[in-house]
Amino acid sequence: MRKVYFKSELGLNIDVSKVYDKKISSLPSGLKNSSRFVKNANSILNDPGIDIVVELIGGIKDARLYIKNALKNGKHVVTANKALLAQDLGLFNVARKNKRIIKFEASVGGSIPIIQAIQKSFVADDIISLYGIVNGTSNYILSHMQQHGCSFKDALKEAQQKGYAEKNPRLDIEGIDSLHKLTILANLCFGTRLKHNNIYCEGISCIQYSDIQYADELGYRVKLLAIAKKIASRLELRVHPTLVREDHLLSSVRGIYNAIYIESTLAGKTLLFGKGAGGTPAGDAVVSDIIDIACSVKNSGMDIEDEAMLKKKVNLKLKNVKDISTRYYIRFMAIDKPGVLAKISDILGKCNISISSVTQKERKKTKIVPIVMITHEAGELNLQNAIGKIKKLNIIKNNPVVMRIENWGEE
Ligand SMILES: NC(=O)c1ccc[n+]([C@@H]2O[C@H](COP(=O)([O-])OP(=O)(O)OC[C@H]3O[C@@H](n4cnc5c(N)ncnc54)[C@H](OP(=O)(O)O)[C@@H]3O)[C@@H](O)[C@H]2O)c1
User: Fold this and answer.
1) Is pLDDT at 121 greater than 50 in this prediction?
2) pLDDT tens column, 327-338
3) How far is CA 303 from the centre of its chain?
4) Which residues pair with 272 in a beta bridge?
5) Cα–Cα distance for residue pair 192/184, rounded to 1 Å
6) Is the CB of 58 inside a 6 Å radius of any atom of ligand 1?
7) Among the four residues 134, 333, 373, 405, which has the most C-beta atoms within 10 Å?
8) Which residues pair with 373 in a beta bridge?
9) Are 186 and 179 in contact (CB under 8 A)?
10) What ligand 1 atom has the least distance to the C-alpha of 20?
11) Are 228 and 181 in contact (CB under 8 A)?
12) Which of 18, 19, 20, 21 to mutate to test ligand 1, by most ligand atoms within 8 A of the CB atom?
């Protein structure tokens, strides 16, 4: 039905002429016995009748090779491969050299048209900052812990049972998937040429329900945020669990949903929200890329301009996470005896960290009590120094829990 629409309304003749997967059993039943299934990627890459190659195999080595060869053979490419795009910007040079396009809408935010928005809708604007909930698995786990009062382990198990988390969830829960997406978004927004391994990343696997509960009592939700901020000539990029005020729009993004919140000079504040992953949302983005390329080719012939990642080049220096300033949530587990608070406050004060609120939780049989603090804005280096000193005190048990807080002021 769509194919008929593309033909009648857009004048495009889109046909999936060949499909390759290393395992035929992975293909939908309709394709398994189809003559379109080929046993070798080269049968696609070397076919002069194919205009667009869609890469959805994931991974790095083969995907890179197939994309390069497709471009060199004069084909446009559509990919959803965020891991590859977060580390190999060279592919865009190959595309440019061969006057071909790489489109990658499905690589970030599933069906949310964030790449299009940054490339086209914000073209006259200046993006100042971007905050993304870009991993549905982590967001589901954190939301589930908050709503059902359960541990990280139980929430992960639930996510796996529902098909929202992989059997091996490392990329999602350790923040790596968010990091890949942040790298792509930051390069697009700010014209940088960064690779993901230079960017600070912390996942959610150490988050305990008690911290979600204490944050809740203080009026915050815990979210895994991918953050990008341009401050003068420096760029702050980081992925980590973050306390977000409960009345902020990002706090209402629950479950597997994704959202990207952008602050820009002309448009002000913009929120894009939608399903961040899954076969149909990602498939929708892939098809929209194919149609976009087909329209460009139809309208201007094959000699079209590369409109992707490498258009503008800006030299923004990446800020080390040690140089950032923010507010912090800190939980200490301390022996419940007089003078404990004074000792902690003394070290914080000497490290130039001022406390905004302190809550000491009820006394337990073990005589170890949680002390929860929120700081005013403080330097990360000072904070790490203070934590290093405090955790050496013999009144402190376990490693203190530290989470950064993001404040947007009045919304
Ligand atoms: N799933 C989503 O919701 C989603 C959303 C956005 C972006 N993406 C991206 O889309 C890509 C695919 O993700 P997916 O979830 O669809 O992965 P998937 O379920 O693992 O599917 C990939 C398929 O490609 C096959 N394959 C792997 N390497 C191959 C090779 N060298 N040659 C031929 N076939 C090969 C795999 O076979 P084996 O199983 O035998 O390895 C598998 O059948 C990834 O880059 C992912 O990041 C996915």
Assistant:
1) yes
2) 999 999 999 988
3) 33
4) 260
5) 10
6) yes
7) 134
8) 330, 358
9) no
10) 33
11) no
12) 21
Judge contact between 273 and 259, C-beta under 8 A. Answer: yes
Could you count the other beta carbons within 10 Å of the beta carbon of residue 406?
Answer: 19
Which positions ≥6 away from 84 have C-beta within 8 Å? 59, 60, 63, 64, 67, 91
What pLDDT is attached to residue 405? 98
Three-class SS state of 373: strand
Is 181 annotated in the active site?
yes
Q: Supply the mean pLDDT for the chain.
A: 92
E strand intervals along 122-206 = 127-133, 200-201
Residue 293 identity (one-letter amino acid): I
Smallest CA-to-CA distance from 55 within 75, 39, 72 is with: 75
Tokens of 27: 């293909």
Distance of CA 158 to the CA centre of its chain: 22
Q: Closest Cα to residue 340, out of 387, 403, 393, 400?
A: 393
Distance between CA atoms of residues 291 and 285, nearest Å? 10
Which letter does DSSP use for residue 138 in this model?
H
CA angle 232-132-205, nearest 5°?
115
Q: Which of 18, 68, 75, 181 is catalytic?
A: 181
What pLDDT score was predicted for residue 310?
Answer: 57
Q: Whose CA is nearest to atom 23 of ligand 1?
A: 57
Top-confidence residue, 301 or 121? 121
22 lines ligand 1 (CB under 6 A): yes
- Ligand 1 within 6 A of CB of 305: no
What are the DSSP E strand ranges found in 161-219? 200-201
